[in-house]
Here is the input.
Amino acid sequence: MSRPSSRVSAPPSFPQYAAAISLCWLLVGAFALLLTPIPARTVGTGWSPLFWLVLAPASALAGLRLRKG
Here is the structure.
């Protein structure tokens, strides 16, 4: 009979949480932009929908990747 491991894994760090949140945000934003009638650019808001739905989380993921080295 084997004993279960007594070693407890470390909790996820902030970059791991931030990457998970950014990835979820990116997927939901891309889904919303592609499958709903939200235009990527409007006269009133400019490129704001595209930025906040896709480019902002992609930038956060790129920043985390560059920080990791």
